[in-house]
Design brief:
about 0% strand, mainly alpha
C-alpha cells in the first residue's frame, strides 16, 4: 500500500447522505435536524438516530482497525 492510498482511506468521512440512507430519511431531513433548534427550518432528528449513528461509528472503527492492521500497526 502506498502513502496516498493509506491516507485516502484514513481521511474518508461519513456523510449526511450515509446517515440519511441508514435512517431511511432524506439528506435534507438530516441537515435540518443538525440545525440549531431555534432555527426556522429545524426538524427533530429521525427516530432511532442513536442506533444509526452507533452502527455507522462501529463500521468506521472497523475500517480504521483494518487499515492499521494492514499497515502493521
Amino acid at each position: 500500500m502506498d502513502f496516498v492510498s493509506a491516507t485516502d482511506r484514513l481521511t474518508v468521512c461519513m456523510s449526511h447522505s450515509d446517515i440519511a440512507y441508514e435512517a431511511g430519511v432524506s439528506v435534507q431531513a438530516i441537515r435540518q435536524a443538525r440545525m440549531y433548534p431555534q432555527a426556522e427550518g429545524y426538524r427533530s432528528p429521525p427516530s432511532g438516530w442513536e442506533s444509526v449513528v452507533a452502527k455507522l461509528a462501529r463500521a468506521r472503527a472497523a475500517e480504521l482497525v483494518k487499515l492499521a492492521e494492514e499497515l502493521g500497526g
